[in-house]
Design a protein that fits this description.
The protein is 53% helix and 18% strand. The protein is an alpha/beta fold. The chain has an eight-stranded parallel beta barrel, surrounded by eight helices. The structure holds erythose-4-phosphate (E4P). Residues 6, 26, 28, 31, 108, 128, 130, 132-133, 164-165, 184 line the site of erythose-4-phosphate. Erythose-4-phosphate binds at residues 6, 26, 28, 31, 108, 128, 130, 132-133, 164-165, 184.
Length: 217
């Protein structure tokens, strides 16, 4: 499983980039707005200069023609850009047209297996099931991820599954076990993935023991 960072915060992307484990970034309009930045082009280009991998940027248009035009504009900003298109009939129309032209689409806001299958059939490079938001309404988000992975394997679909709306480290473990190609994680969750109290205790004890002997020499 690969790790993408789910944020539009440049500092977080810079810090996470140093770890050498992040191979892409996903943004959405809410994440960009959270940074109080309206210069989407500058944000996406800055992210592309830090992370050498797919950077998802979402369209806001709602009609297929407008989505296609907007998607082409977004993808002209950097070769890394993947265009996020939300699930809908119009979104499918746009996804299919863009995929035929070689523009990579992340079919987003996916909450059912049927939506994921349709995204794959339309040629999307990625589908993004939103795990946390499903959990929030009493559904098992990770079960959906597992079902999508299984069905895509059954039919040899090349579309990759991004486990999105990840809220905590257990989601990452479950996404890996479910066979998700990618988990897109908020920065704090990435940091939580690294940490373990026993590692901290172990490092402190090693230092203490060494210090005890070293001080005698
Ligand atoms: C994924 O591409 C989305 O940006 C993201 O995972 C949404 O997560 P949220 O439910 O925490 O907003």
């Amino acid at each position: 499983m690969r790790i993408f960072l789910d944020t539009a915060n440049i500092e977080e992307i810079r810090e996470a980039g140093k770890l050498g484990v992040v191979s892409g970034v996903t943004t959405n309009p809410s994440l960009v707005a959270k940074e109080e930045r309206a210069d989407l082009k500058a944000v996406i280009q800055e992210i592309s200069s830090i992370i050498d991998g797919p950077i998802s940027a979402e369209v806001l248009s709602t009609e297929p023609e407008a989505m296609i035009t907007e998607a082409k504009e977004l993808s002209s900003w950097s070769p890394n850009v993947v265009v996020k298109i939300p699930v809908s009939a119009k979104g499918l129309e746009a996804t299919s047209a863009l995929s035929k032209e070689g523009i990579k689409v992340n079919f987003t806001l996916c909450f059912s297996l049927n939506q994921a299958i349709l995204g794959a059939l339309a040629g999307a490079k990625y589908v993004s099931p939103f795990v946390g938001r499903l959990d929030d309404v009493g559904h098992d988000g990770m079960q959906l991820v597992a079902e999508i992975v299984k069905v895509f394997q059954l039919y040899d679909f090349s579309t990759e599954v991004i486990a999105a709306s990840i809220r905590h480290p257990l989601h990452c473990i479950a996404a890996a076990k479910a066979g998700a190609h990618i988990a897109t994680v908020p920065y704090p969750v990435l940091i939580q993935m690294i940490r373990h109290p026993l590692t901290d205790v172990g490092v402190a004890r090693f230092a203490q023991d060494w210090q005890r002997v070293a001080s005698r020499i």
